[in-house]
Design brief:
single chain; 202 residues; alpha+beta; PH-domain like; seven-stranded antiparallel sheet; two-stranded antiparallel sheet; 3 helices
Length: 202
């Protein structure tokens, strides 16, 4: 009469698993099988008569388990490191609907990432252009557009924008002309960098 080694349940003759707890039944024939030289799961050395690997616990002779590739986390560079980085205020995004959110814009070889209160990732092939929207009262916005002609982001540089607003309150408008020029140069550098990535020249 055989009994389950785990729960003590009475086993039917020829049973391969316990009918109560599902534990595999080890027969005398199984116990007499010589163990292979190494575990098929982790490669650890095995001694004769071992039914389970002392290193990983896998059953001796079990088929190797498929190990999925590690998942890429936010900020990991699939196609290389960060090529360009800037701190911006997100005026609006059609992807998140967010407004006036501060964050960091990151350019990689394969994507653009926004890291603020929200997180967004846009494959580089979806981006078509970087443009400027001029305003007589406010700092220009940098507009990043995608293939369907819709915009992804309306962005202003956070630091420049704060300085711009202070100058407006102090009525030092001449200083703001310099800030507009500074932001224009930054937007142009982003445009050139994104175009270079899209063309494979960066």
């Amino acid at each position: 009469m055989a009994f389950c080694e785990k729960c003590g349940n009475k086993l039917n003759e020829g049973a391969k698993f316990c009918g109560k707890c599902g534990t595999p039944v080890v027969s005398e024939q199984d116990e007499n099988i010589s163990a292979p030289a190494a575990c098929t799961q982790c490669g650890a050395s095995l001694e004769e008569g071992e039914m389970f690997c002392p290193n990983c616990g896998a059953k001796v002779g079990a088929m190797p388990q498929y190990q999925p590739a590690p998942i890429q986390t936010q900020g990991q560079a699939v196609g290389g490191g960060v090529l360009k980085e800037g701190r911006f205020t997100l005026n609006h995004s059609i992807l998140s609907g967010k407004q006036n959110e501060e964050g960091i814009l990151l350019l990689y070889r394969d994507r653009l990432e926004w890291k603020g209160e929200t997180y967004m990732l846009i494959p580089i092939e979806k981006i078509t252009s970087v443009e400027l929207q001029m305003s007589s009262m406010f700092l220009p916005s940098m507009i990043i557009k995608m293939v369907n002609k819709k915009y992804l982001f309306y962005l202003t540089n956070t630091e420049i924008n704060n300085e711009f607003e202070k100058n407006m309150k102090r009525k030092e408008l001449e200083k703001n002309h310099e800030l507009v020029e500074k932001f224009n140069l930054e937007a142009e550098s982003w445009r050139d960098a994104i175009n270079s990535v899209r063309n494979g020249t960066l």
